[in-house]
């Protein structure tokens, strides 16, 4: 049991036979509401005779030993944490950073802290306005954990609203660099494909013939990266979840290192020498980098543009690909 967790144990009586699990626990543990009991069950925090029960309507058997583990209470608001940031620009309205790969943007299940939000709270301190009643940065867009590059966050309510409106009406300039398998032919073009949840794997997005949301990505070949791969630029007109990764995989040129949409790297490297093959397969993320971000500054109205160079791990990947 983790520090500060609490554990409650009881044994179902003969009179409890056939009773719903959530009802029995709510009656036996009156300090918890039935909704709280249900959420604990769904979170896998309840066991019967040592086996996890995740179904609130489970019918209890007499004599069963029931155990409820209540996790420690965590802070409702993210706290500042001293995490180094590469700041490209900062003023009283906003901050622009070059997000490193591996940094999650916002606290969530599985990543409760050590996120960009925690870093920004520590970095900005009292300069943050009370967005939503809390002193926290206004996250108006996100990059996947393993995608690097330029991001902007608001430091005031007015800036948050102005930036969010620009993202909503697709007036933001966004350019990405991606190492992809193969060489797109023709070397530039536009991918139009509606994106929604895959109908065969709900954890993935997919290009759909119907349903989903309209999505458009413009791409252009920048240079060959050896005989097997290319470095391309992608510019977005829309901002759907995993848009570039899904569109490029649909085109037949998945992003190198993409663990979700880019299977089959080993086969592509079958004839590569052992050293370069191992280095390429060891690349630990999708080779995708947000190179440019442009928008109208929320205070001055001036069009501003910020860029970030490809990080060293991706440069090393390209060098290995070019050496094949």
Rg, rounded, reads 25 Å
The name of the CATH superfamily of the largest domain reads Pseudouridine synthase
How much helicity do the residues have? 10-25%
CA-CA gap between termini: 50 Å
Number of DSSP-assigned strands: 18
Shape: globular
Biggest sheet architecture = 10 strands, mixed
CATH topology descriptor of the largest domain = Pseudouridine synthase
Kindly summarize this structure in a few lines.
This protein folds into three domains: 6-70, Roll (Structural Genomics Hypothetical 15.5 Kd Protein In mrcA-pckA Intergenic Region, Chain A), CATH 3.10.290.10; 77-169, Pseudouridine synthase (2-Layer Sandwich); 170-324, Pseudouridine synthase. It has eight helices and 18 strands. The protein has helices spanning 21-28, 34-42, 116-124, 157-168, 243-251, 265-268, 274-281, 312-322; strands spanning 6-11, 46-48, 51-52, 65-70, 87-90, 94-99, 130-131, 134-135, 138-139, 148-154, 173-181, 188-192, 194-197, 205-208, 216-225, 229-236, 288-296, 303-307.
